[in-house]
Amino acid sequence: MNYFNVFSNIMITKGITRVLISDLQRNVSELYPLELHDLIEELKACSIEDVLSNYDEESKTIVQDYLDFLLEKEFGFITQDDWDKNFPPLSYEYQDYNILSNIFIELDTIDVLQTLQQSIENLEIKHMVIYCQRALLLEEFMEIDRMFARSPLEGIEIFSQFHETIDNDFIHALDKNTARIYNLVFYSCEKAPFRAKNSLRFTVTFTGESLKISSCGKVNLDYFSTNLPKVLEAVNHNSCLHKKIGIDVHGNIKNCPAMLQSYGNVKNTTLEQALNHKDFKKYWNVTKDDIKVCKDCEFRYICTDCRAYTERTDTDHDGRDISKPLKCGYDPYTGIWEDWSTHPLKKKAMDHYALSDKTKAS
């Protein structure tokens, strides 16, 4: 007897109309018809010979073609015996020993970073994302990096408004004098002033978009990520809020700067105190399997969830918002993508968040 075994790095996510097969080693995901999922389930339970015996001659040819396809794509392999017990599936457990892993700060002046510096070190936060609603100066970029020179902080990503002094010399000065900045995004830039060299230590992106905090939460194929740690986090926890903390432009401590609920202000509350608030972690373990509509979507483990902007249609028994993200235009029941901002059923929620036409389009 011959048996088909799925490689442990292959993750199969069943949706209502399609199945997503993710190769967690190659970091790629591809869509396939549901019948392929059904065949794989049959092959898990029975030998290839037994599966083929269930079909007529015409269907056998189709099944064999599918099997050849699965082998060609390296989604699995064939053994002579039922050795499935010798090939244990990949564990989907997620381990993150940090108290907090990420901090997102909506920055006005860099003075707030000095207020947060000790807490960031105490909580051993590894990654920081900074959004500044103005153009940061070269000295400010370098001061941000220098401020955390002796902290556990490993990486800093900065979104800053573009200004005309940003040129090759500006970027190379940052490359030479900083160590933790790994990604720079300059927004409201009509045309990239130059092409950043690949030899830089960090990545540089210029975009014409006028980014705002309200721009977050968009669900788009371009933002999907088949990254093993991210996928495992999404299976077990909320893919956006788990072990994250945010500071809005007024210094309010939140799960995300775009969310309404605050757990204190940096002027009189430490990050440690905010973290101990009884409601701070309430969304940490809300997965896509808990979210209406999302739970039926084939993209649910490679998509980032958003609790800041939702359709506001459903809550669970703990009072948590489990509605579909507002800025998602995908319908898993039809497999069709549409412009979320023009959907009539979303208008009430958009009015609630006071999203202007400009914001909707961004």
From TrEMBL:
<dbReference type="InterPro" id="IPR013785">
    <property type="entry name" value="Aldolase_TIM"/>
</dbReference>
<dbReference type="InterPro" id="IPR023885">
    <property type="entry name" value="4Fe4S-binding_SPASM_dom"/>
</dbReference>
<dbReference type="InterPro" id="IPR026497">
    <property type="entry name" value="GRASP-with-SPASM"/>
</dbReference>
<protein>
    <submittedName>
        <fullName>SPASM domain peptide maturase of grasp-with-spasm system</fullName>
    </submittedName>
</protein>
<dbReference type="InterPro" id="IPR058240">
    <property type="entry name" value="rSAM_sf"/>
</dbReference>
